[in-house]
């Protein structure tokens, strides 16, 4: 049970929807594999593009960064290697002018 609790505690809201009803950590892992291993190359390309065009807009910084994390998590789950520096650059690029350095 401790592993099951740990797995569920680390899931995004989107991922949790796919493991509702799972009773063991193995069931959770299998459900997540089935969900995320089937991402097509078109979906991967779309997620990569989304990561680089995402904008903060009216969201607060926490929500903006969470949206970026969700995209990164989906890419990672699809087997894509994501470089931290690329995510940082994308995050900074998506911020409005009032976040520019002095």
Instruction: Average the pLDDT over all residues and give the rounded result.
Output: 89
Regions with little confidence, pLDDT below 50 for 5+ residues: none
How much β-strand is present in the residues? Answer: under 5%
Question: What is the strand tally?
Answer: 0
The tally of helices reads: 6
Determine Rg (CA atoms, Å).
Answer: 16 Å
What is the molecular shape? elongated
Output the helix-strand order: HHHHHH
Pfam family, one: Retrotran_gag_2
Organism: Malus baccata
Protein name: Retrotransposon gag domain-containing protein
Structure write-up:
The chain is mainly alpha-helical. The protein has two domains: 1-38, no CATH class; 40-102, no CATH class. 63% of the residues lie in helices and 0% in strands. It is built from six helices and no strands. α1 (2-9) packs parallel to α3 (25-36) and α4 packs antiparallel against α5. The N and C termini lie far apart (50 Å). The relative contact order is 0.12. The mean pLDDT is 89.
Provide a compact summary of the structure.
This is Retrotransposon gag domain-containing protein. By secondary structure, this protein is mainly alpha-helical. It is 63% helix and 0% strand.
Lay out the secondary structure.
Layout: H1 2-9, H2 13-16, H3 25-36, H4 41-53, H5 61-77, H6 84-93
Helix pairs in contact: 1-3, 4-5
């Amino acid at each position: 049970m401790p592993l099951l609790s740990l797995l569920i505690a680390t899931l995004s809201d989107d991922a949790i929807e796919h493991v509702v009803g799972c009773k063991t950590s193995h069931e959770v892992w299998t459900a997540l594999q089935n969900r995320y291993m089937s991402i097509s190359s078109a979906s991967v390309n779309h997620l990569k593009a989304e990561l680089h065009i995402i904008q903060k807009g009216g969201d607060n910084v926490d929500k903006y960064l969470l949206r970026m994390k969700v995209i990164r998590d989906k890419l990672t789950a699809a087997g894509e290697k994501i470089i931290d520096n690329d995510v940082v650059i994308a995050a900074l690029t998506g911020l409005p002018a009032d976040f520019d350095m002095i």
